[in-house]
Amino acid sequence: MTNNNASRRRPNPANNNKPARPSNYEFVKYAGTGTEVVDDLTPGMAPSWRLIEIAKWHDAKHSGRNSRIAGRLIAIAAMQEEMQVAA
């Protein structure tokens, strides 16, 4: 006696409605600066030690965008340190 159920495939689910992808999805080019996440960051908004730690994380990613973000974070941390020394 053989088990015929062992070789049967599971039927497709009745509800397989997936949201449609926009037709231009592959063709939309990125037009940002790559540093939008830190462009509005100003000295005094976060402690320098935190900015440095986040910069280290971004720098470890080794991509162009992440290194630019890390550079911006380090520059803001340096500005904060200069402001504290001057005060």
Briefly summarize what is shown:
The protein is mostly helical and 87 residues long. The protein is built from three helices and no strands. Helix 2 (48-60) packs antiparallel against helix 3 (64-86).
Spell out the blueprint of helices and strands:
Blueprint: H1 36-39, H2 48-60, H3 64-86
Helix pairs in contact: 2-3
Distance linking N and C termini? 89 Å
Count of distinct strands = 0
Radius of gyration: 25 Å
Class from secondary-structure proportions:
mainly alpha
Characterize the structure shown.
Helix 2 (48-60) runs antiparallel to helix 3 (64-86). The chain has a domain at 35-87. The protein has 3 helices and no strands. The protein is mainly alpha-helical and 87 residues long. The model has no long low-confidence stretch (mean pLDDT 81). Helix content is 46%, strand content 0%.
